[in-house]
Amino acid sequence: MSFAAILMAESEHVVNELPIPSFMFGVFALIVFLFLGVITFTYRDVANRHSHKTGSAPTAHTYDTPDTDSQH
Question: 15 pLDDT exceeds 60?
Answer without folding.
Answer: yes
